[in-house]
Amino acid sequence: MNNTIFFFFNNLTHQSNIFDSIVVFFAVYFIYIVIILAGLYLLFYYKILSSQNPFKQFANKWREFSFVGLSVGVTWFFNKFIAKILFHTFRPFVVFPQIQPLFSETGYAFPSGHTAVASSLAFALFFTNKKVGSIFIFFALLIGLARVTAGVHFPIDILGGFVVGFVISYIFSYIFNNFSKKL
Questions:
Q1: What Rg do the C-alpha atoms of the chain give, in angstroms?
Q2: Of the candidates 71, 112, 116, 141, which lies 20 to 30 Å from 156 by C-alpha distance?
């Protein structure tokens, strides 16, 4: 089933340069836009920029920023330095030499780092605001789907990235909701 889903989406590539460019944009660059949007959302939602004293307002909301930042940072660290070392799974273009990915990737595939970071950010925002978090979860799905379509990940890599992102954000949500209020 993993291969069937992969080939369904990957077979859409190399038909149109415009479509391929859109896939590459969402697979490679969109995550940076998502991170910037999340930062702007936090700054405006907690009224940091519009307050009389932005530094004081930021100091009052440090828990919220720390929760999101630590969730994303620990997810990135875990994915890069622990998960990729534990799981040596090859990328689709290594398993199937006939696959021509839309861009070059190195390293092991499981779990998807882009999807893990995007989903960690999305779930951290979801735990603070369901509506906004749902939009960011959609963004994370879009990133993951684009990476499958581009030929650099299998669907199971994307699912693994979502699980990693969710679990780490959930752990930090639990910690911040139960322990940081005592500080």
A1: 18
A2: 71
